[in-house]
Write a structure and sequence with these properties.
It holds the Pfam family YcaO. This is YcaO domain-containing protein. By secondary structure, the protein is of the alpha+beta class. The protein is built from 13 helices and 12 strands. Strands 4, 5, 6, 7, 11 and 12 form a 6-stranded antiparallel sheet that branches. α1 crosses α2 and α9 crosses α10. It is globular and about 65 Å long.
């Protein structure tokens, strides 16, 4: 398959391939709906697709999975060696990624894009990091960022060693700042100043353009903030009107996804939008008796798009749960890793009894984001965050080796989920409600 992906990329770019390979490569392009209609002209979309195929050719494995609960879901998985990014990571364990969609194209792009995102975050030997002069940069950071830096400094493995810093851009004015390197890049364990308190994937994204990647990363931060205030903060979710176009679209999508499933699942929607106003949705599902709780999260400029993305992610998690159940059945509990155990604990929640999974009969106010260009939507959301006193920073992590735009967005004032750091936003939510653990027993969502 690796060789076939490479030949398909070559064909897409208009290069010659041998007669035998041409047929198979063309079939790959047709299956992914990548057949070029622009003749010999290589536009940005075609180039991006070719780069995805080339990346896939370098992965150790790319495979397809079938979901018993959503037979119409298309899912790809892949594994790769982190040393693809740089020899600094020789000897690191293989990394797995996945992607889902209603078409082969969307699932493939989601999977390979997630792999490129991970690889692009890995530190390389040419990345410029700063050691001394920490105090010189502190005055350029706002209060929330300074609080984060202070919390990270306390987590240093060697307290006497100065932090390493990475260059970033402050989005409010385009000014240059420096942030702790270990929340910006995936560094070899021996070089880390501290263990990152939350997954570095949160706020990072690959996309067909830099603007698209940046918007996707920012939306993920807002999604995880909403999830944290809901699940750990105890903020009750709101309803989505059945007659709303988002609710109608959800019903149609679920009928398509669930068609042919042998065991029915109940599915419903929760609006977990916060004071930011960007539509955030949690899609939830369970078996008829309330067991097997699974969920999906999404923040998007429009409620309908958030609903659609949340449902697809929910189906992806249902598939992951099925894989964990198979591992457990065939090899026992000792075969489960830490993430598998979180899956098992979360799926054991009785969805009918958990108050956080029952939406209240009121509706959230959503920020009007009527623009269509990613760059415009991105600026509008950044401005909204500024109004709430939340700084945002951006790093362009695009690597020439992969040639796919990758951007990391950092917003220290937002609550990440999961995260070992509790922000003022989460503290305030817990103080108002008593916290989500009242309903969840402290079981982790992610």
């Amino acid at each position: 398959m690796q060789e076939l992906f490479a030949r398909a990329a070559s064909l897409l770019l208009g290069n010659e391939v041998d007669a035998a390979g041409d047929h198979d490569a063309r079939r790959i392009l047709q299956a992914l709906e990548y057949a070029s209609e622009s003749g010999n002209r290589i536009d940005s979309e075609t180039a991006n697709r070719a780069h995805l195929l080339i990346a896939a050719s370098r992965f150790a494995r790319v495979f397809e999975l079938a979901s018993p609960d959503a037979p119409s879901l298309i899912s790809f998985g892949a594994q790769f060696d982190p040393a693809l990014a740089d020899p600094l990571h020789d000897g690191s364990p293989m990394v797995g990624v996945s992607g889902v969609g209603l078409t082969l194209q969307h699932a493939f792009q989601g999977c390979i894009g997630e792999g490129i995102e991970y690889l692009s975050q890995l530190q390389t030997g040419t990345d410029l990091l700063l050691k001394p002069g920490v105090d010189d940069w502190a005055e350029k950071l706002g209060p929330k960022a300074l609080e984060l830096v202070a919390a990270l400094s306390e987590r240093r493995v060697q307290p006497e060693r100065a932090l390493s810093w990475c260059r970033a851009t402050r989005l409010a004015d385009g000014g240059e700042v420096w942030l702790p390197a270990d929340i910006c890049l995936r560094r070899p364990p021996a070089q880390r100043d501290f263990a990152p308190p939350s997954p570095l994937s949160i706020g990072s994204a690959a996309g067909p353009s830099r603007d698209a990647a940046a918007l996707h990363g920012l939306l993920e931060l807002i999604e995880r903030d909403a999830a944290g205030l809901w699940w750990r903060g105890g903020q009750l979710a709101r309803s989505i009107p059945v007659q709303h176009e988002a609710g109608i679209a959800a019903e149609a999508l679920l009928r398509q996804l669930r068609h042919g499933a042998s065991v029915p699942r109940r599915t419903w929607l929760l609006d977990i939008t916060t004071d930011i106003g960007v539509p955030c949705v949690a899609a939830a599902s369970c078996r008829a008796d309330g067991s097997g709780f699974a969920f999906g999260l999404a923040a998007r400029p429009a409620l309908e798009a958030a609903v659609r993305s949340a449902i697809l992610e929910m189906c992806q998690l249902e598939l992951a749960d099925a894989v964990v159940a198979t591992k457990r059945r065939e090899r026992g509990d000792d075969a489960l890793n830490a993430q598998d155990r979180i899956h098992v604990q979360r799926a054991a929640i009785d969805a009918d009894q958990c108050r956080l999974l029952q939406p209240v009969a009121e509706y959230a106010a959503h920020l009007p984001l009527h623009a269509t260009e990613a760059s415009v939507i991105f600026r509008l959301i950044v401005q909204r965050l500024e109004q709430l006193g939340i700084e945002t920073f951006c790093l362009d992590l695009t690597r020439q080796r992969f040639a796919v735009p990758v951007v990391r967005v950092i917003a220290p004032g937002l609550q990440l989920e999961p995260s070992e750091i509790v922000t003022a936003r989460l503290q305030d939510a817990i103080a108002r409600t008593g916290g989500g653990a009242t309903y969840t027993g402290g079981v982790s969502l992610i």
